[in-house]
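Hey all, sorry for the wall of text incoming. These are the three entities for the joint prediction.
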Amino acid sequence: MKYFRITVSLMMIMVLSGCWSSRELDELAVVMGIGIDKSGDHLECCTQVIVPQNVGSGEEGGAHGEKPYTNFITEGKELSTCISKVSDTTGKYVFMSHNLIAVLDEDAASDGIYKYLDYLMRDNQLRLSVCLFVTDKSPEEVFNAEAPLFEIPSINLSKISEGFPESLSGQNVTVLDFINNMMCKKKGSLVPFITLVDGKIKVCGSAVFNGDKMTGRLDEEDLKGVLWIIGDLKGGDIVLDINNNTLSLRIGRIKSKTFPVLDKNGEIYIKAEIRGDLYLVSDDANMINTIGMDAVVEKLNQSVEKEILTSLSKTKKMGVDIYGFGDMIYRKNPAVWRAIENTWENRFKEIRVDISADFSIIETGSIIGSVKK
Amino acid sequence: MDINRRNMAFTVALFLGGAMLLTSYVTDITSWEAWVPALLAFFLSFAVVSIYLKLTKKYPEKHLPEIFVCVFGKCAGYAVSWAYVFFFLVIACFNTYSVSSFFVGYVMPETPDIVFTVIFVFICSRAVRLGIENITKISIFIFFLISLFIILNFILLLSQMKISNFLPLFDHSFYEYLQAAHTELMNPFGETVVFLMFADKIKNNDFRSALIWGIIIGGVMLMLVVIRSVAVLGVTISISAVPSYEVLRLINIKNMITRIETLYSFLLLILGFFKVSIIYCAISRLTAYLTGLKTEKSIINSVGAFLACMTAVSFTSGFDSVNWGTKYAAFFATPFVFIIPCFLLLVITVKRKGEKAK
Amino acid sequence: MIITLAAFLYIWLSDFKNTKGNIKERAVFLLLFTLSLALAILISAGVKTISPIKAIQTLFDFLHISY
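and here's what came out:
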């Protein structure tokens, strides 16, 4: 009896160790990126799959410098159909757990992306940290783009997305962030917009989403003004123009606080306070010594405020609350929000926003003046 | 006595921790305010547990069916006890299904539920055969392991937490708070009624302080998990099937510390094992007592087989179990967790007053 | 079905001999064993309509006791 029990226990261990659902590494098609291209009624899905034997290829590894990835183009009515067709082509189980990015073309974005996000959220393998992009090219072209420092374009794109907080060129938007925005009160989303220039990826602003549909675009200049308020900025470069001379500054630390305020007349307005510490990167005209640090800082504050106001007026015209002002009002004062909820689209276009930028240049670098007189 | 106070306290804490898999039944209702009904249920649980403690004070070192028989007489006492067998079976089924559906859904999607259920119940039966005393002996070690993990991932997720995810406060309707608090109170706090089955194995004073401390420790652990999930997921917590698992998937420290949710799945398994083993042990003991057996050892496997079969037919999908958990479970548990113990206490008080008057 | 019967064979072999000499224990064991075996055979045969939890749900819906 004892040996019977031991035998049964050992047999159970085999099952417990996951043999039933086990997949050997060579049976998996590891997906790194998904591209969705909508044409008419059906979808064209580009799935970037790793070719493990070509990863780290050089003289020693790989098959004579062959690409470490393959792109599979499949068609179908739904995203799930397209992805399952990849296993028909590869003969391998499509493993989505390592998927890093989802690239959507403009048609798919304009039509509404929630059905794709629903698939990405519902799948138990996929993570909510998948980064989103919109492109005016086909996802296939994006997945074949040159990636000089990373072997795989999907990894290149995910690194670009991760690097957005360090620059003023975009916002890292994951599936979780997008869904969060959709579930917030009338909040729009910004998704990085990419294009190809000479076969290389270029980030050019952001796509503006109202709900799950793309309704417009913001170019890089307009986007900067938006990012001052909503971006979780950790770095970035600013070029300041003073009397036809330029100074370059780098963001060291930024703290942006945006909150709704109820004034004496019972009208609600938004206050945005941006505080930051900047490093002086270049000042060949020696403006710091010429007009003084205070004047430079004053001009910097005015320049940033102007940038924000310009972006604000453009985004107000679009009628999409990408800043989340409505959601802020709801979180601070639900009763006030309920009174204005139905007219929020119009109110947003006219809402007063008080911006105050307060920067300081804390570091001027290894030189204290300029050689030029 | 066979169980010491410290072991019992940590066992109760781990029993409550088993609800980490089931927080979606509350987050589904109150979304980002899930911490409110959780806190409410935590405080109300002391009121419920005080009823059990009063019962144990009036009948020290007697377990639940013995108290029923003393108070209601043999017939009625046995009838109520059989009802409790059914209640314990249902909650054991529910918890077993939660564990097996989690593993089948997230870890081994092609394995049928029944395989997991059978193996899981088999493992629990091995533990139950060794007795509640031995189950409680490992509770301290397991508790510290789990607490360490929870604190660690709380720290790792600090950068992704936002205070604004808790706002606005008290924006749900009273009915929603009531539903969520009632659900949370009945499962898992109210399920601590199961420990009354082991009141004869521990000194009365130790049992009382162990139950209180266990609820405090377990309640704090649960609150930490709920608060962490809300702080990270915000409003999206309401559409998450297992919020604490989703939250752990987001941990990515320099691409080095990543994919630690697999570790969490093992801890969830251990917590589920603890909870189901304790309820399984209670069912076996209760059945043995009601059928006049000296020991439950010979019926443990049969009870386990029955439990596995019942789990297999109870729910067809995760949607069924969420439906049960959010809409019906609280009402089903209320008579067993609150009404019958209250009534029992009332009868005892009236009886004693009557005896004193005589 | 074979696995179900094998599992119950294991239960029989491990527990039946422990009930030797005690009629009550043997009776209880046989009752529980038969009950769970019958249920397991029905489930293996594909009959999954006997669900106490679904019965409770139906009763509660009838009595309008649910959220």
